[in-house]
């Protein structure tokens, strides 16, 4: 299983990568922008994209919409500190597969994220 993590906060990216790889055995690559993520998606294969919402230049929903417009068939999880209904509604309209909140205990949030990743990847592969 390979995940592409997208967040404009490099410290948060490294923390996310460490938690997923060390505690949940989920391999991941990290990028700091949606533009860099689109380049990675052109070059490499991933099982799921996990993206922040609040990023400069292209927010998480614009990134999701771009992926869907390019017909890139990859599950997308919005991993965000924002819990606004408007954001969630727009994400659903654009084909998000799941949401995970960045708030609270890191161990609990990464456990939830790893469960969502596994669920989505297993559903896509038919397990």
From TrEMBL:
Please report the stretch or stretches of sequence annotated as the Response regulatory domain: 2-117
Q: Which biological process, per GO, is one annotated for this protein?
A: phosphorelay signal transduction system
Q: Which SMART domains match?
A: REC (SM00448)
Q: Which Pfam families match?
A: Response_reg
Give all 4-aspartylphosphate modified positions: 52
SUPFAM superfamilies xrefs = CheY-like (SSF52172)
Source domain of life is: Archaea
| This protein's UniProt keywords | Phosphoprotein
Q: Which PANTHER family match?
A: TWO-COMPONENT RESPONSE REGULATOR, TWO-COMPONENT RESPONSE REGULATOR ARR22
| Protein's name in the database | Response regulator receiver
